[in-house]
Design a protein that fits this description.
Layout lengths: L1 H13 L2 H7 L2 H10 L6 E2 L4 H10 L13 H19 L1 H11 L2 E2 L4
Antiparallel strand pairs: 1-2
Length: about 110
């Protein structure tokens, strides 16, 4: 049972907005938002996980045969709450990074 819980938690964290924006390279964030055809041009580093999730929700209309509802969107909605908590814990680091590096640019939009 503990292993199953560990796998579920790891799976949720792998898609977490904060993990994608704080702990992964900026190129990964940019590529993910380009793939989602988001209208966001940049993501600030402060509360970046929450902004990243909103950017995923704020994209082009789905292509025919693809749905922007169901489990994927409910996961993003759930992740906004989790990302808000993690972003608050990461605030000293993200304030430092925002001051030194600026926001995460979505290149090639």
């Amino acid at each position: 049972m503990k292993a199953l819980i560990g796998v579920v938690v790891a799976g949720l964290l792998a898609g977490c907005g904060t993990i994608n924006t704080v702990f992964r390279d900026d190129v990964v964030t940019s590529d993910n938002l380009k793939e989602a055809e988001s209208f966001c041009g940049a993501v600030p580093r402060v509360y970046s996980g929450v902004v990243y999730d909103f950017c995923l929700l704020h994209g082009q209309a789905p292509k025919p045969g693809h749905s922007r509802s169901g489990p994927q969107m409910s996961f993003v909605a759930l992740d906004i709450g989790v990302s808000a908590i993690l972003d608050t814990l990461m605030l000293p680091y993200t304030l430092y990074r925002q001051h030194n590096d600026g926001g995460i640019e979505v290149v090639g939009r």
